[in-house]
Please model this.
Amino acid sequence: MRLLTLGVLVAFVWQFHRLSKDLDWAAFSRALRRPGQWRFLLMAIALMPVNWWLEARKWHGLLRVFLPWSFGRTWRATLAGVSLSAATPNRIGEIGGRLLVAEREEWPGVITSSVLGSACQWVAFLLLAWPGLMWTADGLLQEALSFSVAWLWPVGPLILLAGWWVGMPLLLRGVKWLGNRFKLDQEALVTGLIQVKIPVMLWAAAHACLRFSVYCMQLYLLLWFFGLELPLWRGLAGIAAIYLVQAGIPLPPGLNLVTRTELGVLLWNTGESAEPAAAIAVLAAFTSLFAVNVLLPALPGYFLFVRNYRKSKHQ
Model:
């Protein structure tokens, strides 16, 4: 536990160092000095606890099928997951962080409900981000090549329907792999997964959609803060499209930032938003969002690691 605590602290230091290098502090300073721009930054920060509250509510609805956890404990475990996932690709370390604040006998329920929560996030991607991707890609291709991708619009709903019918075997395989990885009771994991009913999944999927909408709005506000004043629906569609593309490519956080920035410049570096203004705004907005949504809430999660280590040391 001592090595893990040290590793999390090192990850924080590295992420803050990378943040200070990637963020254009001159652009940040200029944005603060523009009249009224600060309100966009404050609104983005104010949405951060809403973002993680929705994640905790989603997970709590799934978790209570397996464990009688209070929402307060679920909230603390969610923050612990954020802390460990800050330095892992696509939040892979999130489950590990949650396990560190759970008892060994509670691990099957934590793992199974977390895997189900990740599946619900893909429901949000296919319901909200897929239309955004199709709209954005169709506009770019029509302008550049006179080529339409309108015929691909039904693919997202079809994938969602297929996942509804064949997703259980895939989830079972994923849960079994995690069970082998952590040496857990396979029967308990599988039995718990089967006990989750459709209304519970629909409830969790609705929270996942709300959370994804909040996340996209945060980035939209930060883009305005840094001077990239996009139309509301065009901007939100492009943001959703970027996250859908990036979600399918598991990269370390630093490369994720590069990928998102390049996609953002491709989408929004047109018309009045000319290079390098668009590139600076996109890089600054994505970097700031990572600081607001990951590093900031990860700090209390880190202290949970330290507290749990001290408790286990005295037992």
User: Anything to note?
Assistant: The first helix runs from residue 2 to 22. The chain has one domain: 2-7+38-305. The CA atoms of residues 87 and 146 lie 41 Å apart. DSSP finds twelve helices and no strands in the chain.
